[in-house]
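job 3f2a | input accepted
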Amino acid sequence: QVQIVESGGGLVQPGGSVRLSCLVSGMSIRGLTINWFRQAPGRERELVARIWPNGGITDYQDSTRGRTSGSRDDTKNTADLQMNSLKLEDSAIYHCNILGNNYWGQGTQVTVSA
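job 3f2a | predicted structure (114 res):
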């Protein structure tokens, strides 16, 4: 059974950073692309970034472009999203999933507040 667990969220001050981790169990992420989504209250879920099998990252939101970096460890089945220079509007529940699959975790809450 595939399970996804996101972690690393919390309360962060504007301008701060957060490192979110996606842990997958039940299948190997080697060769697979990891999506990071977020959903803020009252808004639709949006794709923030993709972490490719080679560890590269593509941003999909103009608002986060240039403020993210990604990493992955296929031996640990993890894929991390680092976000810097956080803004109030980055507050959301962040989810990861595997591109082409419909497995979801509970997400991790990021709250940016002074």
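job 3f2a | The two ends are 40 Å apart (CA to CA).
job 3f2a | closed
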